[in-house]
Amino acid sequence: MKNLTSKQLRQLWFEFFKSKGHAVIGSASLIPENDPTVLFTTAGMHPLVPYLMGEKHPAGKRLANVQKCVRTGDIDDVGDASHCTFFEMLGNWSLGDYFKDEMIRYSYEFLTDNKYLGIDPASLAVSVFAGDKDAPRDEQSAAVWRECGIPANRIFYLPKEHNWWGPAGVTGPCGPDTEMFIDRGRPCGPDCSPACGCGNYLEIWNDVFMQYNKTREGAYEPLAQKNVDTGMGLERTISILQGKKSVYETDVFAPVLAAIEDACGKKYGENDDTTRSMRIIADHIRTAVFMIGDERGIVCSNVDQGYILRRILRRAARYAKRLEIASGALAAVAAAVVKEYGDVYPEIAAAAGHIYGEIASEEERFQKTLANGLREFDKLCGYLVGGVISGKAAFRLYDTFGFPLEMTKELAAERGLTVNENAFNEAFGEHQKKSQAGAEQRFKGGLADNTEATARLHTATHLMHRALKTVLNDENVNQKGSNITAERLRFDFTFGRSLTDKEIAEVERLVNKAIAADVEITCREMTLDEAKAESAVGLFESKYGQKVKVYTMGEFSKEICGGPHAPRTGVLGKFKIVKEQSSSAGVRRIKAILE
After folding, report:
1. What is the pTM of this model?
2. For domain 6-248, which architecture applies?
């Protein structure tokens, strides 16, 4: 197989799919637009849900891109050989065009042809859906793989937990998938398969065949439009191509780790503790750079995306302290990330100064928090009976003051004390369960459902956006994110102070005036240059030439958008703002309803 760099892999991906008639589209924002089901874009399909459900995409039926993604469920596992919070997903889509036969042949060609990855076909294995009560066994995919040359003994039929891709939200498009693996030739036994987890099979690509729609009742209904959605993780793939045991040993992390080495005077790989600490810092600073520098960039806060940003920056700062890195040096690590990715993602290069400032500010705030935590630790030791710090007390130091268990144990050992680790782990596990349950409840439902109610509220955000610019007399009042359920809308926008009661009332009046006018909502496809020339509101950075949809509501609003809309303003109902508050520094938040 070819030993490719990350830049070479991205380029080959685009060249291959252009040759197959695909339009290359830009990466969507890391912050999902109008979708409350997740905090971050977690997969390439996420921004394309409306088109997977049947809406026409401006660029056509065949698409390819490299999507920025963040997944936060395994933050505490980052530091091992493979986990990352930020990653790039190479993806391609067929929106009601080709299906299983063509996609599997495309996959085989890209993987094995010497023009592309050049992987030896004898080292490939694949899995397909085994079938259950919801959908039949995927014999079609297996047959195509056999025609490509994959023998039957390297085609594995696996159940839904391994070979089914669920919807982006609670409901939506989903279906069976076929996954591709490198067989390392070290099976754990006669029943070894990609499902056993022994490490013999390394997943390299996943083709999802979206042919069902999951309903709120849990039923799987056939989709009128059958789609293909594939995903190849860039970091994982280049680690395989470069023959590395860890994604952190590939070219994407090399300059970042070098900056960390310069900051601490230690070498990556010199011992397990140093290696783990450097991986955590490298991953978390890389993720923070992309979060802060995103088109809908965020800043540290105590809620939602801002909370995740704060959490990873403070975790990076903890491990920087462990490596004896001077306070304030993390900005230099961030500069290495910007240098590595700035040509691929110009938005982070443009926001470099802001990124460094936010990281330095949060690092400074964390140092003060640590000082408070140390005082709390000393106070705790003064009351201690029996020489053992309880799991509950250790978890409070972690949860409130950001002390990892390792730090508490080190401080305890200096005083001849121990920590009840089992009780800490129990408290930590209970906290995780509550956090996950709360997140599932909080982000349940939403735009991915494509309901009339969410479409009306989504439409209202356009009218409110325009009204805010008018009332505040500031064209720089721009959307920084939104979160829509069937019951209410939440809209974040750039503005430096709270709105007065008079301003809120005027925004409501203008929106309701537009609703009362009952104008038709029209949609036109055009390039971003054309949209900008017509003064449409939207994000223009690094995506010129790409076709977009522009929704116009009479003289009231003209905005770039890909989500569902009402047919006329008159069907929205009465608009009412129920709350206006701060979201983060320089960002305000409005919650509103349609009565």
Report:
1. 0.76
2. 2-Layer Sandwich (3.30)
